[in-house]
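Reminder to self: keep the SMILES exactly as supplied, no canonicalising. Ligand is pyridoxal-5'-phosphate.
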Amino acid sequence: MSDVTENGMPQSGEARDFARFKLDRVSTPCFVVDEVAIESNLKILADVKVQSGAKVFLALKAFSMFSLAPLVMKYLDGVCASGVYEARLAKEKFCLLRGEVATYCAAFKADDMRSILETSDHVIFNSVGQKEKYGWMVKAANKHVGLRINPEHSEGTVPRYDPCSPNSRLGVPISQITADDLAGVDGIHMHTLCEQGFEPLQRTWQAALPKLKPYLADLKWINFGGGHHITRDDYDRAGLIAMIKEIRETYELDVYLEPGEAVALDAGILVGEIIDITKNEMNLAITNISATCHMPDVTEAPYRPAMLGEGDAGDVYRFGGPSCLAGDVIGDYQRDAGFAIGDRFAFLDQAHYSMVKTNTFNGIPLPSIVIWNSKTDELKTVRKFGYDDFLNRLS
Ligand SMILES: Cc1ncc(COP(=O)(O)O)c(C=O)c1O
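Structure tokens returned for the bound complex:
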């Protein structure tokens, strides 16, 4: 990882083996995911799992690439889902043969509960009201009831990404928790971090522990959600392993982690093409990659994605998408060779939270999805999109 942006969000990413990937091997726009990089992230997570005894799930919200489900399930214990459709994807594509599905949603709808119960092993409620309403069904189905708590301990710098920010709707505020609230609950869930190291997790646990201690003996598990950048080089994995072991031994609890980004970190690029170059006091590159359609976090987070091969020499070009949105701007880039119409380029670290968030605003084509094996150099197109994908979301 490189710098931190003005908003405190780390700026992605590392080129890894994409440094030698020839961009003209794919048609654009296109996500290229290196299965070797995914596997190397999975091996790190599996090592944390083995050494700590934790169970590690992939968070589908970050990375739902089911063509790689067999690879993911070779290393992890299951997946976590954010609602009815992800839970079905989890069961049908990832955990058909083995593995657990944990589903948390800010509010479950009655109509969805049947499907949720068919597909999920843990159903995690966001409020005591929802637990009272549906918890009995979860028990009757022989599944686990979870309750998300909000430790009311902020470690985030960006309120939009901080579940503990004031008035947050995410989780039961820990200061309100009573023994009655936890009646019938098998485990507690707390997701509080975003792209963070071990120390914020440790501080959160220390802040929550005095309030939780009296209840831990009656629980089976604790789920620390996602936001742990475990596969980043500078992550204190030894600290995490020690903390999990201590929790497991002291409180006899199973410990779950739900990383999303960490599974796909620096494992994918988004390849595009310069369609036109114009000038308005500065050089403007109009491309077939749209921030708003293909990388919405660029404008939402916001952040500037790193570009493969960028440098600090040459003329600066402001890259933007083909949409009508004035703010469909990706960032300013330079490279020694400059930029020309027809040039290919690639944004780094696009495997997570981009592919899962694409949309067809303005009828802009969706990027195809290609798996690359950086060891064998094999390239496999797993999905191509066309006009029908645009049409089928409308009527
Ligand atoms: C409940 C829950 N679990 C897991 C995750 C995955 O987080 P990350 O991809 O940052 O690891 C999130 C992300 O928002 C989440 O809300």
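Points to follow up:
Residues 59, 61-62, 80, 104, 191, 194, 225-227, 258-262 surround pyridoxal-5'-phosphate (CB under 6 Å).
Residues 365 and 387 are 8 Å apart (CA to CA).
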